[in-house]
Amino acid sequence: xxxxxxxxxxxxxxxxxxxxxxxxxxxxxxxxxxxxxxxxxxxxxxxxxxxxxxxxxxxxxxxxxxxxxxxxxxxxxxxxxxxxxxxxxxxxxxxxxxxxxxxxxxxxxxxxxxxxxxxxxxxxxxxxxxxxxxxxxxxxxxxxxxxxxxxxxxxxxxxxxxxxxxxxxxxxxxxxxxxxxxxxxxxxxxxxxxxxxxxxxxxxxxxxxxxxxxxxxxxxxxxxxxxxxxxxxxxxxxxxxxxxxxxxxxxxxxxxxxxxxxxxxxxxxxxxxxxxxxxxxxxxxxxxxxxxxxxxxxxxxxxxxxxxxxxxxxxxxxxxxxxxxxxxxxxxxxxxxxxxxxxxxxxxxxxxxxxxxxxxxxxxxxxxxxxxxxxxxxxxxxxxxxxxxx
Length: 390
Ligand SMILES: Nc1ncnc2c1ncn2[C@@H]1O[C@H](COP(=O)(O)OP(=O)(O)O)[C@@H](O)[C@H]1O
Ligand SMILES: [Mg+2]
Known about the structure:
Layout: H1 5-15, H2 41-51, E1 63-66, H3 73-91, E2 95-101, H4 108-118, H5 130-139, E3 151-157, H6 159-166, H7 169-175, E4 180-186, H8 197-203, E5 206-209, H9 215-229, H10 239-249, H11 254-270, H12 278-298, H13 302-316, E6 321-322, H14 323-334, H15 341-353, E7 357-363, E8 370-376, H16 380-389
Parallel strand pairs: 1-4, 1-5, 2-3, 3-4
Antiparallel strand pairs: 6-8, 7-8
Helix pairs in contact: 2-3, 4-5, 7-8, 9-10, 9-11, 10-11, 11-12, 12-16, 13-14, 13-16
The structure holds adenosine-5'-diphosphate and magnesium ion.
């Protein structure tokens, strides 16, 4: 065989020292569902206490899980789902638990079509009226071949996205269908402000809060994964404590902790090192932040990218950036399709929320009013190369 780049790379990897780092990378993947979830026993138990009604053919209460990113909400709901499906199979009751990630199905129609399809109804992905899809969905609970009552639990993960876009129609329809219980998962405690009073009242949900993990808890989570993912003795002893401490600072985010550990391992492999050390972890942090900023900038609407370019230009000129100056620079870059000065304030707000810029209102002294000073919060070179690549 002629030389093949993949074969070559595999051979290099087999010969390198770094080959001994990972045993199996999949346990460090976001999608991996561990056999047990340490420090989430209470929350899982609470979910189960509501869901257990389903085994008596009673529709469970609706439940809402709240908590910041990486606090184990998705994992806990999937864990409870597996357990309930097992129990229902054993007790021979007709219970289904369907998981919907609302980032994949972004309208009421799409969610209902997906549910109908999962329950064996042939419905098109588009084209029917809302009434048609709702009726088809509801019919599932009226007739069933088994002569048994079907109870459906719908997990709506990342529900905030649906509420922002399509209103609260889906929650209303589901909560107004007999035999259906909803488990919503939200990143925001005030998520109910986004839904109408009539929906809140038919939701009538039980709330379960997922607090951020502390450093010690993260350490336990990482240790379990590390055992599956890394070969013995390749992690220096300060690696897991450091990942845990850094992630505890980032709002107790287990996903971030796992990312740090994985990236640190990858850096060790790249460098042909036979151990992962704290320096790899520190550099893993830079690498993750770097990727995050790049991704955010690349996915911004083009007008906001242009505004960032204006901020960059002024920063390079060492100018103090007021909103007036920024607007002038932005207009120069935009030529014809510039948006109004007022819209710019919305953009500035968005960019500040994303953490790419910061604003500071200062007073210029009596009678001179107040001004907004804008500062870049991400690396200048990184911003420039990213904008340039677009
Ligand atoms: N208690 C835990 N034990 C083991 N792994 C966990 C635990 N909590 C979270 N994880 C892992 O951390 C990552 C993020 O958790 P996830 O459930 O996606 O968080 P959320 O949905 O709250 O953003 C997943 O890979 C998950 O398996
Ligand atoms: Mg989640």
